[in-house]
Design a protein that fits this description.
This protein has 13 helices and 2 strands, in the order ααββααααααααααα. The longest helix has 38 residues. Helix content is 72%, strand content 1%. A two-stranded antiparallel sheet has the order 1-2. The chain is mostly helical and 310 residues long. The chain has 2 domains: 40 residues; 260 residues, Orthogonal Bundle (MetI-like fold), CATH 1.10.3720. Helix 3 runs parallel beside helix 6.
Length: 310
Amino acid sequence: MRVFIEGSIKASLIFCSTISIVTTIAIIGVLAHEAAHFFTLDEVSFGEFITGTQWNPLLGAEKHFGIWPLICGTFLVTGVAMFVAIPFGLITALYLSEYAPRRVRSILKPVLEVLAGIPTVVYGFFALTVITPFLQTMYDGFDIYNVMSAGLAVGIMCLPIVTSLSEDALQAVPRSLREGAYGLGATKFDVSVKVVTPAGLSGIVAASLLAIARAVGETMIVALAAGNLARILTFQDGQSLWNWAQSSFNVTGQGQTMTAYMVQIFLGDASNFGPEYYSAYAVAATLFIITFIITLIGTIIRRRFREVYE
């Protein structure tokens, strides 16, 4: 009987692992097949897709399929989000790990983690109804739909990821390192910044890269709050680099991310036989590659800075 139970458990584990692998392969296969079909269409050029700076695939207009406006919109929102999530998340993690009493930590950490359970559509409406009006009171140049509002909401959403994982990494640092630093006359701030943080750097980097990957793949917040205008201006002769960057990467106006474009296409306004429909798969494949690269970089950095204590 014991052999049968152990064999059943082993078979179920193998089955679950196989489902995960098969699902991943199926997703990659669908993306590859549909993206390849997209590039076989007469209206599409692979060279324009990877180098073009205009994205206008909608019906009734001159079609352009340059992916860079969507990539820039995605990383612009991600940059704003990480400007909020990483510093505040790390500071909060340091407080919880090194300064907060046990009772405060047991209350504050679960409260922060509740933010991770809030539906992203709620964050999107929060950005529209709270963050955007607040930004407009600070500066009237903000549009109703703007990159800054969406980025701040995504940053708030990613804050629990950075805080929780970084705090776990800091808590894993051996107590002996702290006591050795205190024995040498270091202050609590010196121990936190110069001993504990470098020792937990591997976990902090992993938490930050996980938050970046989460922000890159976020959908509902950017679909609701950032707008649907994919824009990056072509650099003109005689134009200063500052003016070009200020116009192309303006966070006060609308922007469109890769995920928001896929939402727009799959709403049903475009035919499922035209290049507009298949372009969503090409964008999804690009997003998959970007996320895979971020994950690979995170693995390399984590192995490079990993500290092993005995």
